[in-house]
């Protein structure tokens, strides 16, 4: 039995992870039929026999369950319990431990970090990343695990089922082949790619987890700062985030969010270090170091239907496109002219090149030397929130299973598999 106050993320994880299927051991490996989410009835259905080391997979699933249920807040003895007005950094971490290390180093150097709380949401079990996180000794922190990560479902949805349609197969051939998602290509005729759809899933799950699932944040008053594993923060980020939130409330109530970062090649902290501008939120410009308040989160959650149905695997493009058509309304942001969050190089999810995380971080650190940080107050330099047209969708999100799973992240007490589905 679970405490009644435990909300969606815990209930979902428990029931989904305990929802396996009939299985038979083959020496040390297990051959089993996959139990996966099958729109619209979420039944346990049989897929081709799949053989892999089930014991190791079950250990990893149980680890994810424990992390999300236990919600162990580390370093409490040193820094005390989380307070409602404590700043929260919410990190989405996938891979690349060398970048994670630089992000953690930059947080370590942030003034006031000892009063903040850091939540790291991971979707892989990486010894290298685990080692980086275990060395955090400068603040409270918690690690949670995205429970629908492909590593937990290597041969079934939400991972990639062997009977899923190849990305480029024509729909007519997919229907003839009877692959699982033949009916649901995206707007360009392509079928889902797990590595890309997982990012949007993880983003929306972690947001719901932070605002409605983590028990320590039940009475949270301060907003949450969203970061990703290849970001690098400026030492005065907490100072500036607090100032910007007060300014947003008093001078720009129509601004739903704050954008702490930007992608400009040159930064002028001497002339613009205390300047912000009111702008229409554009996904490609204002997604870096996004600040989300509880009020804004509630609007996002209430737009889940539109957000999860929109055929774009990018969470930020989806957010911009659907906002005018739901409770969010046209998005406006209070954006810093001199960035407080850097994106380290061009080593993002779409990049095929290589870059050196340590060198990129050292370059940013050198760039900040002798700069004018910690402004006494912020000044609105530009107020031009012209409504911009919605971006053209990128596709990649046509699979009805993805859309349906996405919508469940905001709901309580939802069981994904029938009671007859068990290990």
Automatic annotation (TrEMBL):
Q: How does it sit in the membrane?
A: Single-pass type II membrane protein
Task: Tell me where the signal peptide lies.
Answer: 1-24
Binding residues for substrate = 92-96, 123, 198-202
Query: Might you give the EC number(s) for this enzyme?
Result: 2.4.1.143
Offer one example of a GO biological process linked to this entry.
protein N-linked glycosylation
**Protein species of origin:** Ciona intestinalis
Q: In which pathway does it act?
A: Protein modification; protein glycosylation
Q: What is this protein called?
A: Alpha-1,6-mannosyl-glycoprotein 2-beta-N-acetylglucosaminyltransferase
UniProt GO cellular component terms: Golgi membrane; Golgi stack
Q: Which reaction does it catalyse?
A: an N(4)-{beta-D-GlcNAc-(1->2)-alpha-D-Man-(1->3)-[alpha-D-Man-(1->6)]-beta-D-Man-(1->4)-beta-D-GlcNAc-(1->4)-beta-D-GlcNAc}-L-asparaginyl-[protein] + UDP-N-acetyl-alpha-D-glucosamine = N(4)-{beta-D-GlcNAc-(1->2)-alpha-D-Man-(1->3)-[beta-D-GlcNAc-(1->2)-alpha-D-Man-(1->6)]-beta-D-Man-(1->4)-beta-D-GlcNAc-(1->4)-beta-D-GlcNAc}-L-asparaginyl-[protein] + UDP + H(+)
Q: Which GO terms describe its molecular function?
A: alpha-1,6-mannosylglycoprotein 2-beta-N-acetylglucosaminyltransferase activity; metal ion binding
Nucleotide-binding found in the keyword field: no
Family stated for the protein in its record: Belongs to the glycosyltransferase 16 (GT16) protein family.
- What are the subcellular locations of this protein? Golgi apparatus membrane
Q: What is its main location?
A: Golgi
Q: Where does Mn(2+) bind?
A: 230, 343
Cofactor(s) the record lists: Mn(2+)
Keywords, ordered alphabetically? Disulfide bond, Glycoprotein, Glycosyltransferase, Golgi apparatus, Manganese, Membrane, Metal-binding, Signal, Signal-anchor, Transferase, Transmembrane, Transmembrane helix
Identify the domain of life: Eukaryota
Q: List the disulfide bonds.
A: 165-179, 252-255, 303-326, 308-406, 347-355
